[in-house]
Amino acid sequence: MKILYLETSSKNCSVAISDNEKLLCLTEEVSENYKQSESLHTFVEWALEGAGISMKDIEAVSLGKGPGSYTGLRIGASSAKGFCYGLKVPLVAVNSLESMIEPFLDKNYDFVVPLIDARRMEVYTAVYDGKTGEQISVTEAKILDETSFEEFKDKKVIFVGDGAKKAQEILQLPNADFNDNVYPSAQYLIKKSLEKIERKEFEDIAYFEPFYLKDFHGVKKKKSED
């Protein structure tokens, strides 16, 4: 089964194609200026070319549904819906935080905690079991302070994502590891997407909305910000 994956919730505009669990091609780029509107469809074309298939071969579309950049999510969702309508194929949606944890599972961490920067001291986050990847806390917008995640002070935990840098500066967790060079990536949507396809957990294309988590508040002065 050929599947197209779109992940646009962060500074990483990411497109992948798989044949079942086999990754055929990955095209992605991290940009400080959120280039999804400029790059997404070009990346899809490149990924199809790299995979050696055409759009008509695609049998399902998977979307990283957020949380994250409001504008990025809106672009990704509208593109995913358009592909599904045109191809008459199903849409599956995966929490974007889940695409950040896979490289860190089974690495002797008790917990993996993705942190997506949401400006100031706020992050989008959830907690995942470091071995199984099972989500053990709700996805939330969290204001970081010195007491955040203190329940893990005696545990081996890694914080990943572009919110990890500011977390490292404030959290009182001497045993924790931090990796701020991690973004949601389409290549790590494959496993969860296949599970959802197997269970026929498809989205209603007409009514699907990304997982914005917070209402959008526009900022007019700084065009480079989301």
Describe, in plain words, how this protein is organized in 3D.
The protein is an alpha/beta fold. 22% of the residues lie in helices and 25% in strands. It contains 4 helices and 11 strands. Strands 6, 7, 8, 9, 10 and 11 form a 6-stranded mixed beta sheet that branches. Strands 3-2-1-4-5 form a 5-stranded mixed beta sheet, with helices on both faces. α2 links the parallel β4 and β5. It is globular and about 50 Å long. The protein starts with a strand and ends in a 28-residue tail after the last helix. The C terminus is likely disordered. It comes from Chryseobacterium ginsengisoli. InterPro entries: ATPase_NBD, Gcp-like_dom, T6A_TsaB. This is tRNA (Adenosine(37)-N6)-threonylcarbamoyltransferase complex dimerization subunit type 1 TsaB. Pfam families: TsaD (PF00814).
Name the structural class.
alpha/beta
User: Kindly state the mean pLDDT as a whole number?
Assistant: 93
Instruction: Give the CA-based shape.
Output: globular
Helix content: 10-25%
Radius of gyration: 17 Å
Please work out how many helical segments DSSP would assign.
4
Q: How do the SSEs run, as a string of H and E? A: EEEHEHEEEEEEHEH
Would you count the extended β strands for me? 11
Unreliable residue stretches: 217-226
The separation of the N and C termini measures 35 Å
Strand content: 15-25%
**Largest sheet at a glance?**
6 strands, mixed
Organism: Chryseobacterium ginsengisoli
Domain Gcp-like: 37-179
InterPro entries: ATPase_NBD (IPR043129), Gcp-like_dom (IPR000905), T6A_TsaB (IPR022496)
Protein name: tRNA (Adenosine(37)-N6)-threonylcarbamoyltransferase complex dimerization subunit type 1 TsaB
